[in-house]
Structures are given as structure tokens and as C-alpha cells.
Amino acid sequence: MVASAPIVCSFATPSDLTDALADFVVKAQKDAIEKKGRFTIALSGGSLPKQLSALAKRSGVKWDKWQVFYADERAVPLDDPDSNHLLCTNEFYSKVPIPKENIHTLDPSLLNDLEELSDAYEKELIHEFAQKDSARFPVFDLILLGMGPDGHTASLFPGHELLSEEDRWVAYVEDSPKPPPKRITLTFPVINHAARVAFVAAGESKQDILKTVLDKPEEGLPASRVRPASPGQLYWFVDDAAVAKVEYPRTPFKL
């Protein structure tokens, strides 16, 4: 499998970044709907849901065609302050008309059994992306990711055994180094089969880790291991503050 090289697009301000990200998401959506009549997207937590709020002002978004999944989710009730679903609801869904049945949450009745919880979420994916035996891995139209200060992405942490998972679509974590400890996450094979993956990283606090991830991928941090197989593409949406120490070349943003 040939992996695509990252395309790094840097913006002067965080608001320039969120505007470009909105244009990018609309374009990915348009391409997907033209091809197959729906748009499959996986979201992360952190600052990402707020950065998507610029989409509320965009025309041409066919919200009823969106099928929304989570790149990772914390094994907590859906109304828990740690829930990515609650965060996305407050910062994003509350501002746009995505039909509730198109948003695929974890099953809160299974929180006490992580194996069952991750299996049930994998079944949600299988239902959306045809039978598991007919496709080795689902192909998302777009997966949006953030990156932690340790270089983790989704709930894939440095040095964790899940970094080498090759079969499962959805896996669970019992020992996340940052709370809450119990989570489910998409695995690298799923992330790296997407048509488009985009990281969003802004602010000075990201400078050192971005330098390692982009300039020293051989160190193998989780965010460096996101390399979609061609023809999939990997984008980094960053602001100039975050990318100040990075030598990796920038690409002017264009749709």
C-alpha cells in the first residue's frame, strides 16, 4: 500500500482556519453525495466540534445526507461532561439540522462491558458500510482528527498495543493515560482507508509536538501513523502559530 504524503495548509488566524475547514468539509460532502448519495464522516472531540461551527453559515450543506460516527468516544453516558457526543451536540449539532437518527452514538446500555460496547459500535459501521466480509475495512468519506500534546489521536496512544491492531474496526481502551480511562476508538486500518483524513491543530501549544509528528515521522507517534493509503489523502489544517517550528513544506489551500 502506498501512503499519501501529508498536505499541510497553514492559516494566519484561527478564524481563517475554521473558514477553510468549512469549505473543505462542504467539498468532501459534495463529492461523496455526487458519487453515492450520502456522506460518511467521523468526528473527534477536543476543540474540533467548535471549529466546525462555521458550517452552520454555509449554504449547500445537505445535512440529511450526513451519516456521523465518532473517531473515538469515552465509555461514559451520553450526557456525561466527558462524552464526545455531548460536546459535539453542544458545539455543533445544536446549530445544524443533522437528523438525530443519522448520528451514531455508542450504546449507553453496554458501558459496563467494553468488549460488547466496541463490538456493538463495529456493527453500526458494518450496517452503514455493507457487510464486513464484503469489504475488508469501511471507507469513510472524511475523518476529522485532533492531536494531543503527547501525539495521540482518536484514542490511540503512544506505546499502546492498539497501535499494531490490524483486524478490528473498533477497539476498546481500558487504560487511557488521560482520563477517562475507558474508551472505544476507530483503529488505524479504518482511519487509513478513508478517502480523506484531516487533522486540525491550532495554537502555540502544538508547536513542539507538530514538529515531531511532521518532521520526525520515524519516531512513530500515533498522529504520524495516520497515512491513508493512496488514493486517500491526508490534510493538516494548522495555524501559523502551531506550525512555527515545522520544516515540512506548506501547501497553499485550494479546493
UniProtKB/TrEMBL annotation:
Q: Signal peptide position in this chain?
A: none
Which Gene Ontology terms cover its molecular function?
Answer: 6-phosphogluconolactonase activity
In its keyword annotation, does this UniProt entry include Hydrolase?
A: yes
Superkingdom of source: Eukaryota
What parts of the sequence cross the membrane?
Answer: none
Chain ranges of the Glucosamine/galactosamine-6-phosphate isomerase domain: 13-236
Reaction(s) catalysed by this chain's protein: 6-phospho-D-glucono-1,5-lactone + H2O = 6-phospho-D-gluconate + H(+)
Which keywords, in A-to-Z order, does the entry hold? Hydrolase
Biochemical pathway:
Carbohydrate degradation; pentose phosphate pathway; D-ribulose 5-phosphate from D-glucose 6-phosphate (oxidative stage): step 2/3
Enzyme Commission numbers on file: 3.1.1.31
Q: Which GO terms describe its biological process?
A: carbohydrate metabolic process; pentose-phosphate shunt
Keyword match Coiled coil: no
A Pfam family per the record: Glucosamine_iso
Role: Hydrolysis of 6-phosphogluconolactone to 6-phosphogluconate.
Q: Family assignment?
A: Belongs to the glucosamine/galactosamine-6-phosphate isomerase family. 6-phosphogluconolactonase subfamily.
Protein's UniProt name? 6-phosphogluconolactonase
Organism source for this protein? Heliocybe sulcata
